[in-house]
Amino acid sequence: MGKIIYVTGGARSGKSSFAEKKVFESKKEKIYIATAISFDEEMKERVRLHKVQRGEDWITIEAYKNIQNLLLEYKNRDAVVLLDCLTNLVTNNMIIDREVDWDNITQDILRDIENEIKNEVDNLICFIKDSSLDMVVVSNEVGMGLVPPYALGRYFRDIAGRMNQLVAKESHEAYLIVSGLELKLK
After folding, report:
1. Active-site residues: which are they?
2. In what side-by-side order are the strands of the sheet with 29-34?
């Protein structure tokens, strides 16, 4: 049964560095799930810097959907998966390949979108628990700031917050990172 470690905190809090340290400490084969999509030069540079920081000995999978299917070939390996990050997974599943008027969306459509995202997260958690893989999940803490003034921001915050709760509940360990300092939550 795979172990899940959840790491959350604000932007630039040191979450990814802490998560990478946890992966390195495991002494297992390393698999990186990159959920970000490089739309512009700034994001391409961030991705490049993350790759340099991690080093060459990682298997990298770029995906935000059906991740468990992409991990099937590694299911029985002695490896640890670093999913960085859950909030990008939520964002991409909310926006990519959708034509949604977020200012006029019905609650039924919003509920369907959230259920699709929840299914993605549930499927990945179940897959990890039923495998020999461990997984470290990085996510932004989205509930400590101001309420977004626009509908899409509020929907994102709510869905991401609920996905954070889901992963935190299912995790074996959970950490909050603030200014590079970690607080073990469980």
Report:
1. 50
2. 58-62, 29-34, 79-84, 134-140, 4-9, 173-178, 181-184
pLDDT (tens digit per residue) in 13-53: 999 999 999 999 999 999 999 998 777 787 777 777 777 77
Range of the domain at 126: 4-184
> What CATH number is associated with residue 87?
3.40.50.300
Count of the separate structural domains present in the chain = 1
Residue with tokens 């991740």: 67
Query: Shortest CA distance to 63 belongs to which of 87, 20, 92?
Result: 92
CA distances from 133 to 11, 34, 115, 159 (A): 27, 17, 25, 26
pLDDT attached to residue 68: 96
Are the beta carbons of 138 and 15 closer than 8 angstroms? Answer: yes
Three-class secondary structure of residue 139 per DSSP: strand
Interatomic CA distance for residues 36 and 30, integer angstroms: 18
49 residue type, one letter: L
- Mean pLDDT computed over every residue of the chain: 93
